[in-house]
Write a structure and sequence with these properties.
By secondary structure, the chain is α+β, with helices and mostly antiparallel strands. Helices cover 18% and strands 35% of the residues. It contains 5 helices and 16 strands. The chain has a 16-stranded mixed beta sheet that branches.
Length: 322
Amino acid sequence: MAAEGGGGDGGDGGRAGRRLPPHSPSGLVLQTVEMHTGGEPLRIIPRLEAAEAAAAGGLSLLSLRREVASTQDHVRRALVHEPRGHAGMYGAVVVRGGAAAGGAHLAALFLHGAGYSAMCGHAVLALGRFALDYGLVAAPSCPETAVRLHCPCGPVTAFVPWDGWRSGNPVRFHSVPAFAAATDLAIDVPGHGKVVVDISYGGTFYAFLSAEQLGLDVCSSKTRDLVNAASAVTEAVKKQFKLHHPESEDLAFLYGTILTDGKDAFSEEPTTNICVFADEQEAKFGDYNAVVVEVSGEAFYTGTATFTIEEEDPLKYGFFFK
């Protein structure tokens, strides 16, 4: 049966044979693998040629992080910001070759709405599965495979279930040495008065305090009130306390604040906290007493995507609502 509509091009001017969506010949085409860990999204960029070319020049991962931020930040904005992303989107650029030094299977750069992180636990859990399923580990072993990742904060090892065909859950990982940079630190927070915080490091620095000190409850207060208060604490700590990292001052920045329900003493009962942006082995990290923490969780695939950019699009590199 012949299709209706005359003409050798089927009446569509030859459009049926074009690949969609159209994009500029010189424009970016970015392929991603989409995952989530406990609902926290991760947009994985399996290859970014500009990052791998820079890594081939022998840059350290922290130096590569600065280089990508300086020359390829449009990639982060395009994938993490609206309209392709959203305020809670998180990303990871997989880097192979030179940057994945010291026997690591892969290196990773972490992306978020405001810039670049040095460590991300939910991303490590997802990247552990990704490394096995996408062939980055040459000979996975059953029933569990150790996946060595090079993160900007240092080496991290994920332990991923493997059945000989695909990865599984739960995934666990051992952190870089974690330590308390300050405890019972008094900070003056505008609008809230004086509060007492602890500041700890586990790949990035966070301030910790109970939400009760801010007149809030992590289980019943409005999310916006919790976020605003945590952000106020973050800014106050940045202004009133100077951080130091034993190995690199590039890592000496406060990433955010975690508000707890006040049940900070160890207990078998579950506790609640909100983070705004463990088997223990004693260790020493610079002048700090430190521990290596094991974290476990479940990561799942949600799909793959191909994102294109039209050069004439005034919003081609995204926009950000706050």
